[in-house]
């Protein structure tokens, strides 16, 4: 009876196979295009939380994207918006503190906030993670990190501080730098600072610079990461034809693709990565012949 219970049937094996990722299944193995869970698996769990990291891991997704900002007392935390309002209960906990900006709250105050109940009752009590907590969870899950420095103009020196945290957590050793870490930003200045501080780190410039500007970007950026909206096969080719700071062709991760037709379209252009809130949808779309 017991033995029978643990021997999978053919049907069960088939079901398991369907659940297994068809892309990016194993950390350290690059399959094209890579699948990146945007703010974690943010359709499954509250964005930019450890629950979203775990949800991505549960779906077999290696890469997670996040957004890093800084508190009033200098702690790096993971949150997308400049304000805490949309994704936490800050307005209830601190009603007098409008406009509730991350930079105006201490780490201890932010640690009191509920960053999960807005998403659903299953996530009540979920917290805003510090970058250190976040990186440890990504490490524990054997995942890879696409780290976005968000609003760097608000946080002078955030590049050095981010690298310090990554270094303290062992994420700047060869094993992580070669394939498990990309630092990205919409700010070319911020990305240039990251590259100058540690030229070994792989960097991604968010946005869609003109083709004529790609050689300049390639001095400090290994990837160009545009929105899918205005992407074309020609642009992807132009990116790939440009040599990056590490002597290899620039790569391109496109965002934020949650639709199967768009996923197939950008994959057809030859993008190297698809950043998505819905890894399940994109995976299914790309698995189809
Ligand atoms: O990774 C790309 C994407 O995260 C950029 O947009 O606003 O979601 O941070 P946003
Ligand atoms: Ca982001």
Structure description:
There is one protein chain. With 289 residues, the protein is of the alpha/beta class. The protein has one domain (11-68, 131-286): Phosphatidylinositol (PI) phosphodiesterase (TIM Barrel, Alpha-Beta Barrel), CATH 3.20.20. It has helices at 2-6, 10-19, 50-58, 90-93, 107-111, 131-140, 158-168, 174-177, 188-197, 214-217, 233-240, 260-269, 279-287; strands spanning 34-37, 63-70, 76-78, 144-149, 181-185, 202-206, 223-225, 251-254, 273-276. It has an eight-stranded parallel β-barrel with strand order 1-2-4-5-6-7-8-9, surrounded by six helices. α12 links the parallel β8 (251-254) and β9. α12 (260-269) crosses α13. It is globular, with a radius of gyration of 20 Å. SN-glycerol-3-phosphate is lined by residues 38, 65, 67, 80, 148, 206, 225, 255-256, 275. The site of SN-glycerol-3-phosphate (G3P) has 10 residues, from β2.
Compose a concise summary of this entry.
The protein is of the alpha/beta class and 289 residues long. The chain has 13 helices and nine strands. It has a single domain, classed as TIM Barrel, CATH 3.20.20.190.
